[in-house]
Specification:
Layout: E1 2-9, H1 14-25, E2 30-36, E3 41-46, H2 53-62, E4 66-67
Antiparallel strand pairs: 1-3, 1-4, 2-3
């Protein structure tokens, strides 16, 4: 397993957290998603044999948020 920390802009509430968690959770190989709303950080634990970090960026952007 590997861990990737993303800085996500635009998350302001628990609905945002659920949206981003859901978007990332649909990627095959993602094992866990932990979001610290106050800091705008998203920690993704994933299997690099199944998931790529560029998929995380795409999923977050398609959910309506921006990775800084």
């Amino acid at each position: 397993m590997e861990t990737k920390i993303l800085d996500v802009k635009g998350m302001t509430c628990q609905h945002c957290v659920k949206t981003v968690t859901g978007a990332l959770g649909q990627i095959k190989g993602v094992k866990s998603v932990d979001i610290v709303l106050e800091k705008g950080t998203v920690t993704v634990v994933y299997d690099p044999a199944q998931a790529r970090t560029d998929q995380f960026k795409t999923a977050v952007e398609e959910a309506g948020y921006e990775i800084s």
